[in-house]
Amino acid sequence: MNENTNAMKDKYVFGFWLYIMSDCLLFASLFATFAVLQNNVAEGPAGGDIFSLPFVLLETLILLTSSFTMGLAILSMYRKDRRQSLGWLTATAVLGASFIVLELSEFIRFIAEGNGPQTSAFLSSSFTLVGTHGLHVAFGLVWMVTLMLHIYHKGFTPKNERVFTNLVLFWHFLDIIWIFIFSFVYLMQITA
Amino acid sequence: MENEKDMPTLSGYIIGYLFSLLLTLGIFGLTYIHIASDHARISHPVMHAAIAMLAVIQLAVQSIFFLHLSRRDDQRSNLVTFIFMLFVVILIAGGSIWILNNLNNNMSPDQVAKYMQNED
User: Fold this and answer.
1) Which ipTM score applies to this complex?
2) Please, what sign has the CA dihedral across residues A150, A153, A159, A165?
3) Does the CB of B24 have a partner CB in chain A at under 8 Å?
4) Are B63 and A176 in contact (CB under 8 A)?
5) How many Cβ pairs within 8 Å bridge chains A and B?
6) What's the pTM value of the predicted model, to 2 decimals?
7) Residue B52: closest CA among chain A residues belongs to which residue?
8) Nearest Cα to Cα of residue B8 among A152, A174, A143, A73
């Protein structure tokens, strides 16, 4: 049984890995678009005028920590410790939700100040890039809560373990995309 | 269960987290020094090179410690697709920036003025 389920697990995880790799290409196109348009601010503000360094640092630390707690959650799964695993997953979900709330509050602030995505090519492309990442995080949260319910009710079945492995990959991938967003969107604009 | 030592470990995650934390705080610290001194303390090219370099280093750190990419047999196909992805990403992002900046530079101010007039 073990040999078979392992081979199947590997296949599923590799399939999901291929999805992540192609998602990287989606983000690459959005990054390229942003890179080309970032100086076209029309009459609107430049990045340095509206981005806040402490705010971005807070978002970054929250997402990085959630990536770490997600790792701890899967380590608990390897030890078949359901309670601890659910605990770390809850911590990850809370951190992920805080990240989304912060990002939404930033978007709302920009739009309230009259710097919505229709203001300039720079804002259109940064809203699209950052928003696409935020949408991924939001979907990840829905997925996480669903998985937590499955683990709570059925424990670590082979299917749950497989899905868990994929979710962990997805979550780490989102944190890696965020490294490039805070570096090339926020920090580059703030120092420009 | 398969080989125990192939499994991700707690120490791996802690090292990866601390390393990423250090890189993140480092680049935010440098950025803070840069803007607090009114862009005087660190020159622009140095600052931008540092941001890009630390991002790439952190990509490597997280790929190794969080995604567990390695040259181990069971990770071989993940690694190959990862490298191919990087290649295509560099092609898309690098290529777009190169070509479109060229177009931008090759457009003379006269032409730009003419386009602006047509729009009015």
Assistant:
1) 0.90
2) positive
3) yes
4) yes
5) 117
6) 0.91
7) A183
8) A73
